[in-house]
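Objective 1b. Sequence-to-structure analysis of Helix-turn-helix domain-containing protein.
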Amino acid sequence: MAVGEIIKYFRERNGLTQGQLGEGICTPTHVSKIENGKTAYSFEIISMFSERLQIDIEKEMASFQEIEKQLNDWHNAIIMKRMKLVEEYKKDLESIPYISSSKYEYFFRLLQARYCLLHEDGEKAYTIVQQIQKEYQSLSVFERNLLLHIKGIYYLFYHEGSENQQKAIQVLKEINIEDYGNPEYYYDLAVAYHFIDSKVMSYLYCEKALRHFKKTNNFLQAFNAESLMLLQIGSNRYNDFKETEERYNNLIRDSEILGASNKKGMLLNNLGYEYSRRKDYSKAQKCFSRALRISDRLTTTYLLRFYNYVDTSIKGELLRKSVLLKKAREGHSLAKQLENRFYQLLFKIHIYYLQDQMEQYYVYLEEKAFPYFKSSKHVICLKRYGKELYTYYKETGQPLKALQISNVFMNNIE
C-alpha cells in the first residue's frame, strides 16, 4: 500500500490524471487499484510509473517506511520535553512531501497539535483538533485516544469558559489506557483534580503518573508529579511541613543540576504557595520572586506567578500600597494583553482594594467576579471571595443575599 500512496502523491503533484499516468502502461482502473492498495502490481509497472514521474521509488519507499518510527520518536520527544529533539524531528517530518496524504496523516496532524500545546499555542492546537474531529471515524483507536488526550490538555490549560476543569476530567477519563499505551495522561488528570480541589483523586493519579515517569526515566515530568503530590500532602495540617519543605528544596536543587529552569520555576511557585497558606508571606514572596525571574513575561505562567507575588505582598503588607497598586495595574494590563479573563478579574479586585474603593470592590465582586468564579467552578476563589461577600452582607444587614451566597458557596464546595 505504501507504493500506491507514493505513486498517488507524485501523480497529483505532477498534475497527471490516472489515465495519463497509465497511458501505454495499464488502464486508469488498474492505476486506481494500485494507488488504493487493492491489487497486486508488478515491478515493471511500478518502474514505468517511477520513470514517468521522475522519482526513485526505492528511495521513496525507504523514506516512507521510516515515517512511523519518526512519528513515534517525535511523540516520545514531546512527552519527554526534549526540546532540541522535538525541533529536529519536526523539521525532518515536515520535509517528507507525502506525509499529509499518507495513512500517517492523522497521527502527524495530532502531533502537530501536541507540538502547539508544548509551545503554549492553544488556539492553533484547537484548530487542528476541530479539523481532525470531523474525521473521527477514520482514526485508529490509538489516534482517537491521542485526540482525547490533546483535548483534555487544551481544556485544562487553554480553554476559556465555564467548567473547563470538569471538561478536562470528563475527556481524559474517556481514554482507554490499553489502546493508548501512554500513562502520561494520568498527570494531566491529577492536575485537573487539583484545580477542583479534589486532593485524594489528584494524589492518586499523581502516584500513577510518577511510577510511569520513573519507569521511563522522564525526570522532568517526575519533578512535576512529585511537586503536585507535595501540594496535596501540604494541605494536610497534620503533615510535618519541615519534611515537605525539605523535599521541595531537594527537588529545586535537582532541577538546577539538570538545568531544568522551567521545573525550578514551577517548584518555587508551589513552595511559595505552601508558605503563603501558612501565612509565612515573606518566604512566599521570595519564592514567587525567584520563580518570576526565570519565566517568560508574555505567558500565562508568568501571569500566574506575578499574581501570586502581588497577592502575597498584599496579604503580608510587604510593599508600600502605591507600589502594590502599580504592580496590580501592571498585572491587569498583562492579563488584558494575554486575553485572560480570570486574571483580569483578580487584578481588578486588588486594584479596587488598594485604592480603598470598598463600595466598588464589593459591587465588582458581586456583579462581575463571583458569577465568573461560580460559572467556572473555581473552588479556591469561591471559598475566598464567597466568605468575603457573606461577611459583607451580614455586616451590612442584607440577610437574603447572605443566605443566597451561602447556598452558592456550599453547593460549589461540596
